[in-house]
Each structure stands twice: as structure tokens, then as C-alpha cells.
Amino acid sequence: IGNTVLHILVLQPNKTFACHMYSLILSYDRNKEGPGSLELIPNNEGLSPFKLAGVEGNTVMFQYLMQKRKQNLWSFGPLSTVLYDITEIDSWAEDQSFLELIVSTKKREARQILDLTPVKELVSLKWNMYGRPYFCFLALFYILYMVCFTMCCVYRPLKPRTGNRTSSRDNTLYVQKMLQESYVAYEDELRLVGELITVIGAVVILVLEIPDILRVGAAKYFGQTILGGPFHIIVITYACMILVTMVMRLTSTTGEVVPMSFALVLGWCNVMYFARGFQMLGPFTIMIQKMIFGDLMRFCWLMAVVILGFASAFYIIFQTENPENLGQFYNYPMSLFTTFELFLTIIDGPANYDVDLPFMYSVVYFAFAIIATLLMLNLLIAMMGDTHWRVAHEQDELWRAQVVATTVMLERKLPRCLWPRSGICGREFGLGDRWYLRIEDRIDPNKHKMMRYTEAFKVQDRDIYDKGSEKLETNGDTLCKKEMSALSLSRSTSRTSSHRGWEILRRNT
């Protein structure tokens, strides 16, 4: 019952009342330090009160709980050294990491905890010592891997075409070699080494990604942009395309260019994932994801309807015309592609002025230019501009969240020998088996002096206001107007004294 009440207090909107009641309940806990402590008992979701405060973004309760856990090591003048308990914060030995819970929650208030002590210092320590070097090495390794795969695709086994052309539009010169012909010369063996590296890399990607999907869940793993959800979809699809290409090569099946082309596009697009390791580029990856899966996905439905309607109209108009004079609409698939290019203003309106064009072509093209170019494209630009403005105001929070997500990902996937545990064991200071982070703090005396001035002014204003209120209550109705004027006078006196006090404070600053 006590543990349930603690979880309820974390969710209370009245933070001050919740903190007092939290301390009152813990004062009756018999197992304050043992494993049966109320603070260590998780709820049905596996969250302790401390982790629940982080997930809900309750910064007041989080700071209150951290103040209870800290140990003052020494103090000398304005300098002091504090040991913060990071047992539940550190993701080194946690199945359900506190840092991962914060970056994966949908509440923006939770990301503010990443800027609080000691979370900020712990993340900075992990990222600067281990996260950034490993992440940069991983980015370099992936780029070299993609260069290897690209070279294997560029020099894939091809042979001259032996059959005759069946159409005047047939432009094929080379065809794919059979498996027995693909690995004969020395260059083929060299390419085989690169292909084996590519296939092994795809298998490693699947082996690393699938356990995380099973642990976190597909919806959460692919849906969180800060965790790199869309990039996980890209890299898994890339690995699957590599395996499909390998099967088609081994079975001598024609058409390997299709999965190979998809793999090249997806593999190089995944390089943008490593932009999160740089503060200047990290928020832009979030911006691109939100634009693609937010603005662009909604816009594509409208664009598909417009393209489908006008492409059908163009095809019907040129269905009776000679395709040699104006071949952009010679069949229905080509009409769809040409209309898509016209929609994005990639090409100008196709027209052959040596022949007579149908009158309806001018009418339909005029309507298409007004709707597509002037209206819908500007609508898309406005939607993307709004998304850019919203993300730009959160770029610092998003950068910190990306760093935390990347650090937790690397810490889970790398061996323990390459990533030792951060902090100091409490045994060195006689504090048990819990782990602590040493933080040196400098107390600014001028800051405390100004805070005392501020509190004094607040007390003075409060006393004057209370005196005026008491006079108003003791007098009768006949003196109501007189006392109201006295109250306004006392308030003006309060403002004057407050103004004088703030002048002193401003001079001190």
C-alpha cells in the first residue's frame, strides 16, 4: 500500500504537497536501506517511483529525490564536492534504463530532466569518454562498408546481349551473367571478397537489430524519431535487400538490379543517421524525419489524387496521336511518370510545335499548372516551414536526447571490456554497493546574497498586504470606502518599498 501511495504522489500536480507526503510515508518505512525498501519496489510497468518521476517529467519530484540521495563529501568556502547516487540512472547494468525511458517517452517535460544534475554530467561523461569516439569510428566504418558495396554493384558481372531487339524503343546492350560465368577472372575473385563483406555486414545488422525489436517492441522501436526509428526501418530493409540479391545471384535469377538499386539508395540514406553525432547536424535528422513521416505522407495522398486524374486526362488526349512526335504520353505508365515530373516542375510542359497539338491539352495543362505548381507546392512549402520552426525551437533538447539515445545504444551493443562502468563505487567511502558520481560545485556568494534580498522584499510586501487586509476585515460597512483607500495606500507603499529594494538589488548586481 505504501509503495502504491508513493507512485500516486509522483503523479500529483501539487509538487510541494507530494514531496512532504513522500517524506512522511518513507519515515514509517522499516526497510529504508534494504532490498525491501518502498522506493525500490516497481509497479506493474516495472517503474520505481524514481523512474516514474522521470517518465512523467516531474522535475520537482526528481530533484527532491536526488537531494535525498546525494552525499556531501567535503566543503571548503564556495567549493563543495557532492556524491550523487546514480544506481538507477546509469544504464550500465539496468534492463530498463532510466535514460532510455526519458528519451522514449512522448512527454516533452521529461527531456528537461536531461539538463539537470547529475543526469547532465553523467551523459556528458559517457559521451565524451566513450560515446563520441566509438560513434565516429562506427560512422567511418559504415561509410567504408557502403563504398565496398557500391563498387561491387558498379562492377557486377555483365555480358553483351546476344538476342535481337524486339522494339525500336528497346535500348538494352548488356545482360546479367549466370553464376558459372560470374567468378572466373582475377577481378571477379576480388569482387567476390567485397560481396562476402557486404553479405556478412547485412547479417550482422539483422543480428544486432532483431533483439532490440523483441525487447522494446516494434511500435516503440520504429515509432520514436529520437531513437532513430525510421533509420532502423531503412537499415533492416537494406539488409533484407542484400540477402535477396544474394539469393538471386546464387540461383542465376534475372532482375537482381531491382533489390540492388533499393539497397544502394537505402544504404546511403542511412548515412544520415550518423549526423546525430554532431550538434550542428543532429536536429536536422529529426527535422527530415518529421517532414517525411508527417508533412510529406499527408501531402502524398493529395498529390496521388491530382497526378492520377491529370495523367489519365493526358493519356486520353494523346491516345489517338502519333507517339513519335510526342512520346511523353505514349502509354499509361509513361503518362503517370511524366505527370509526376510536371507536378514537381522537373520538366517543362512537353510540346512539339512542328505538329498540331490537341486543344484540350492546353486547357488541361493550364488547370494542372494552377493546381499543382501554384497551389499544392506552396502548401507543401508552408507545411515544411512550420515543421522547421517547431523543431528549431527544440533543437537543444533534441540534441541532448539524441546523444542520450546514441550513448545507451552503444553501451548495450559494445562489449563490457570496451565500456567500463562510470562513477565511483560506494565502498570507497563506506556507502555500500551503490554507485556514485562525484561532482564539484562552486557556490556563488553574490547569488545567495541576491536571493536573501529577494526573500526579504517578498516578506515585507506580504506583511504590508496582510496588515491592510486585517484592517479591512475589522471595520464595519460604514468605513468600507475609507479602509479601501487605506489599503490602496498601503499597496502603493508596498510598491514603493519594493521598488527601493529592487534598486538596491540592481546596484549590488
Concise overview:
With 509 residues, the chain is mainly alpha-helical.
Query: Helicity, in percent?
Result: 55-70%
Indicate the low-confidence ranges by residue numbers.
472-495
Shape: extended
**What radius of gyration results from the CA coordinates?**
34 Å
First-residue to last-residue Cα separation: 50 Å
What integer is the average pLDDT? Answer: 75
Overall domain count: 3
Spatially, the strands of the biggest sheet line up as 1-2-6-5
Biggest sheet record: 4 strands, antiparallel
Q: What is the total tally of β strands?
A: 6
- Count up the helices: 17
Topology as a string of helices (H) and strands (E): HHHHEEHHEEHHHHHHHHHEEHH
Keywords: ANK repeat, Membrane, Metal-binding, Phosphoprotein, Repeat, Transmembrane, Transmembrane helix
Protein name: TRPV5 protein
Transmembrane segments: 134-158, 192-210, 231-251, 257-275, 296-318, 359-381
GO biological process, one term: calcium ion import across plasma membrane
